Amino acid sequence: MHVNGHRLYARNGICSARCSRLNFSADTSKSFWPKHCHIEPRLSFHVHHRLAGRWTPKSSQYRQRSLLSQAVTAQQPSENKNTMMMGQNAPLFMRELAGTQRIGRGETVSPLSNANQPTDLMGITFKDASGTSTCLGDYMQANDTDGFLVMHEGQNITEFYADSINPSTSHGIASITRNFIASCVAVLIQRKQLDMDTPVEQYMPDLKSSGYAGATVGQLLDMRSGVSSSMILTAQAMRWSQPDPAKPVADGIKALLLTLPKDTEHGGKFKYRAGDTDVLGCLCEAVTGKSMGEVISELIWQPMGAQQDAEIVVDQKRTPMYSGGMSATLRDAARFGYLWLNDGSSNGKEVVPAAFVHGTRHGNEDVMQAFSGNFFGLLDSPGKMYHNQTWNLDEKRGTILMYGAGGNFIYIDPPAQLVCTVQSHWPGPFMPDRVQGWFSALEAVRAKLAPQTL
Questions:
Q1: Whole-angstrom Cα distance, residue 52 to residue 54?
Q2: 93 falls in which pLDDT band (50, 70, 90)?
Q3: Strand 100-103's sheet: what is its strand order?
Q4: End-to-end CA distance of the chain, in Å?
Q5: What letter does residue 90 receive in the DSSP assignment?
């Protein structure tokens, strides 16, 4: 059906919607276009906006029309700063930004069990970063949310799609890619192909003369090498952003890693370092002799039962963007979150070592002491940390957050048996007010679904 220039799709006939303008339950044969809607169990509701003729219904992809210029704008070098600015549509255009490696699915798909009873989440109220009371549906609509899927007690209770994506869309997940790299590292440690306490140059001799010499695998997992790096440098090395002529950047990700200097001792305080993840990805490829796409596919993607292929962006040298280049569907991202909720197991088979998952959830005193509390200033209280490429929100509960720039989250709370997966396309990669708002929203969802666990 077509409503106000949109096409509406719903499954199983009945859509129950709630918004600030109307409350109703209607057969989907009737025309309506709510500002936002509550999605009942077993109902997949998604909207495709025609976006000025750039939507191609037959292929379910956007026509490639100046996509690179739309998705990534390289800011010209200046005396004050030089940054890469990701456009709002970048998460949807990752394949057009650069080449990709395929992360192939297997033959067996893990089902997402659907709940039998409806659960109203869109009407949940909470306070955003400004202290203003809002409801989840309004907040999602105002903050460029593309997809939202909630699993509670093993069942898919809410699944929402809006503006240009559907269940088959491979959406950029940015730094959630790091959690896949860490999961692969954990499997390779269990297989004794890597060791937590071994210096990285023993696996990659090229690193002997780099700043990473002497850093261990475990230190890189916690971003505690003594080497400063950033996504800005990575983008410049990939030629997504113009480097400062006075400060030339190496050509490609691997070349960049060899040039980064050590500025503090390895094993010190946590600092968010893109290069630490990139080195871990290189190690995975070095010890397996396979591409990162193949490693993720064989160790994680196929065993967890992904429904569709994923992909990871590569640079001009065909090196993957280990620190933030993956794209995946909302449902498969949720499957990964559920894998971690389920102690690393899928369908009764261990995929990610349970000890690694448990250690990530609860950490240790050394990791907590090393954490400086800098996640947009939101993780300053005790019991929070960064461990194994993952943000730990509450070490006692074991609540963790897999976060990707631009509003991409996988929130996992074991006591509540809750996984919330969010995909967005924010106008900027790092927006603290929006992150704070989502923290409050996810806590409100948890409080509604599992108040007995608080």
A1: 6
A2: low
A3: 100-103, 310-313, 326-328, 171-174
A4: 43
A5: G
